[in-house]
Design brief:
The protein has 276 residues and is mostly helical. It has helices at residues 8-33, 44-98, 105-128, 181-234, 238-263, 267-272, and strands spanning 143-147, 155-159. A hairpin with a 7-residue loop joins strand 1 (143-147) and strand 2.
Length: 276
């Protein structure tokens, strides 16, 4: 039917052209953003899943920071403990030398002064072994705890080791002396016990550091996998989008031409009214 009021061909051509323009807009948006799902309007379900995964990634970033801070605190404690262990070895040597009955008073006094200096150095190391407000060897805290899960429900704790003088680990008193042969002889056993205790404490700290390191590696890998998963859900395949863009551009041009031809159809009606 020929009608000047209704042009079905033009209406259909316009409908197809609008669909092509919508597809072209979506493809151009994917190319501009690099994502096929940039917001909820693109695909509400996929966007929601991706957002949940992004929340987990953000959570694991906080977990990683917490683990790194705890690791640094433990590393400082380990370094300090190793230095104390080295000092105790020197103190044992001084005590053993001072226990020699053939040693004269002046020499023993010199050894005692060195021993006292080493004792003071232990105190200095203990008080300065701090990182981010945590000192794991001066008795100010019982443990350090780090986040282990993105929801904060799990933590990893490392026990502190009190290495103050006159304590349960270092049993040497701050007033300890090797000024006499008898004192020096008694001090040998005390230093040996302290050295054994410190080495045991270092083993405990080292075990804690290993736990933190393993968890840190796991969190990094998990975060990377989640990030890859998000990309698989929302990222655009640029090769596919490029081919789609060229196809839609050609389709758009053809649609415009089809609409133009359809719009010219009513002109045929004029020929019906021409006089012979």
């Amino acid at each position: 039917m020929l009608s000047v009021n209704t042009n079905m061909g033009a209406m259909q051509s316009l409908q197809y052209l609008n669909e092509t323009n919508d597809q072209l807009g979506a493809t151009q948006n994917a190319i501009n953003t690099g994502m096929t799902v940039a917001d909820a309007e693109d695909n509400g379900a996929i966007f929601a899943i991706a957002q949940d995964m992004r929340g987990d990634v953000a959570g694991y970033s906080a977990v990683s920071g917490s683990l790194n801070r705890a690791t640094s605190s433990v590393d400082v404690a380990l370094s300090a403990g190793q230095s104390i262990s080295d000092l105790l070895i020197q103190m044992k040597q001084q005590a053993l030398s001072a226990s020699d009955s053939s040693l004269d008073t002046a020499s023993r006094q010199a050894l005692n002064e060195d021993f006292q200096a080493l004792t003071s150095q232990i105190t200095s190391i203990v008080q300065n072994a701090e990182f981010n407000g945590f000192n794991l060897i001066n008795g100010s805290t019982t443990q350090i705890s780090a986040l282990a899960s993105s929801d904060g429900s799990h933590r990893i704790s490392v026990a502190a080791q009190n290495m103050n003088l006159s304590g349960s680990i270092i049993t040497i008193a701050s007033t300890g002396s090797i000024s006499t042969q008898s004192k020096a002889s008694a001090m040998i056993s005390t230093v040996e016990t302290s050295l054994t205790n410190v080495d045991s404490a270092l083993a405990s700290l080292s075990s804690g550091a290993s736990k933190l390191s393993v968890q840190g590696t796991f969190v990094t890998e998990l975060s990377d996998n989640l990030t890859t998963g998000i990309g698989n859900l929302v990222d655009a395949d640029m090769a596919t989008e490029s081919a789609q863009l060229q196809s839609l551009q050609v389709k758009q041009q053809l649609g415009v031409q089809a609409l133009s031809i359809a719009n010219q159809s009513p002109q045929i009606i004029l020929s019906l009214f021409k006089s012979g």
